[in-house]
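Trying the structure run again after the queue cleared.
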Amino acid sequence: MIYYVHRLDKQGGLELRLKTRPVHLEYLKANAHRLFAAGPVLTPDGKAPCGSLLLVEAKDEAELKEFLAGDPYDKVGLFDTLTIQPWRKVFSDPGVGGPPG
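Done. Tokens:
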């Protein structure tokens, strides 16, 4: 099953996010086979990351939470909120959101 994971950073978390980002990205790369999509949630002006959105393959919510607990961002206590929902792909246009042509 694919799960939608939405996490928002704690107030003032940008410095911690940026400091932890390299090991967070390595964690995601090592688990790329489980990720349908992943990326930062941005501030309303689109200039700074303030959270994370992931679509993660897991057999159940317990396995998903184990995966999330291993994320370096989670280990350093970056997040203030967590939303988890099962998710189903219905439509996707591979040209949307990709690199410019």
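Strands lie at 2-9, 35-42, 49-57, 79-87. Worth checking whether this holds up in the mutant runs.
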